[in-house]
Amino acid sequence: MDHVQSQYRPVPLGRSTLRGVDPHITLDDRRDLTGSLYRQLRDAVLDGRLRAGEALPATRELARRLSVSRGTVSVVYDRLAAEGYLTARVGAGTFVRESAAPSPSRRHAPAASPLRPRPAWTGLRAWPDGYRDVPYDLRAGLPDTRLFPYEAWRRLMAAELRPGTHDVGDPAGLPVLREAIARHAGVSRSVRASASDVIVTSGIQQALDLVGRVLLEPGARVAVEDPGYPPAHLLFRSQGLRVTGVPVDAEGLRVDALPDDARAVYLTPSHQFPLGMPMSLPRRRALLDWARRRDVVVIEDDYDTEYRYGGRPIEPLQSLDEDGRVLYLGTFSKLMRPVLRLGFLVAPPALHEAFRMARYVTSWHGDPPVQAALARFIDEGLLARHVRRSRRVYQERHELIAESLGTGFTDRLSLVPSAAGLHLSATLSGPSDLQTVRAAEAEGVALFPLSDFAVTEPPPNGLVFGYGAISTEDIPEALTRLRRVLG
């Protein structure tokens, strides 16, 4: 007689491999052990938990785990094989048959639930709305990953992935990386910071999330550039903050248009996103004076300042701030690879412990091996070398697009002056930018409309040209196709 303990013993579903899986089986029905085991294995095949080609446990092993007879398991395996779900290979084992295709609709969470998201999440949509594969990619925000020194990075990562190399990390980041970032930001960006001022994050978005958690109460107003960076606006809204767009002009964000009740201002003063102009020095000083008088936090996103192709370097707000109210955000996504998700936040001493705790309660710590590899990447001069090499490539693409738009598109496009970053913007006369982008995509060219970046006011009708993801050789053909679209 088959035996099972009175208290059921679930067998956990382990990590699936083609060599074997541990399916989760619960046998709490004494009266029909064979039928219960059959139904659970069959359902696991049908809903895709057991994939085609995966090996099931041997009958003896599964019987031992479930505390049933080996004969019970053998009967179930034989029945499933006869019905086309499994196949036995002499000397190899029992496997899910290749023809046993799963039914996606069979497994899902309960359809009915009383749970609802907070109102702040209603209506939020991801930006951009998916990336489609096109021959000519002029979308902004994407660096050229082909320029990245993979061999050097692999060497550094291999050295950090040895057994015993790292334990749980500091929520603020590995000290060696924080020291390297402080040096890098001081040399390349003129940021005033020591290692203790740096909080390592998984990018700009996490840095913004920490700022909201630490400094802003739900319902507080955040002023942002209009047009501006959509993911930042989405994050602030998800935190229950009120987001107000502030217009920009040729000198950057208009300080005279800031709302009186703003508790924070988020902006990209070195290279306004998406238009591209830098914030003038008088305007930057006016913003700092306004923030001091009204006790407002200034969030400076300096996302691609290493890529400057002309003119004088732009002093960050943080280096001009004598009042300790500017939070400086930086990222390595534009310099290296976006999938690495590495960034940082520079904060004054009074906020160090709060930011460390906010990092701890949300994600405990970062990835110590990756952080250690990045520290060595910086300290060995590899990052600076990569920036110099890629800057030359991006500058060539920048100049090629700017010259082409300035000579062959003057009837439809007016270039916004910019001498930095990985994109250029131009205002558009004629059809709407959204219609133009859709027509260009049909021609194999992808780019962003300026209307994507609106906050509270309609932006200028225009297009944003990214040149990180497209090769220099492909730019002329991409612009030729866009010219046909514009007529």
Task: Give a brief description.
This protein is of the alpha/beta class and 487 residues long.
Please characterize this protein's 3D structure:
This protein folds into three domains: 30-106, Arc Repressor Mutant, subunit A; 136-141 and 385-486, Aspartate Aminotransferase, domain 1; 149-380, Type I PLP-dependent aspartate aminotransferase-like (Major domain) (Aspartate Aminotransferase, domain 2, 3-Layer(aba) Sandwich), CATH 3.40.640. By secondary structure, the protein is of the alpha/beta class. The protein has 14 helices and 16 strands. Mean pLDDT is 90; it is low at 1-18.
Which superfamily, in CATH terms, is the homologous superfamily of the largest domain? Answer: Type I PLP-dependent aspartate aminotransferase-like (Major domain)
Q: CATH architecture of the largest domain, please?
A: 3-Layer(aba) Sandwich
Largest beta sheet: what is the strand line-up?
4-11-10-9-8-5-6-7
Morphology call: globular
In this structure, how is the largest beta sheet organized?
8 strands, mixed
Give the helix level as a range of percent: 25-40%
Count the DSSP helices. 14
Oligomer: single chain
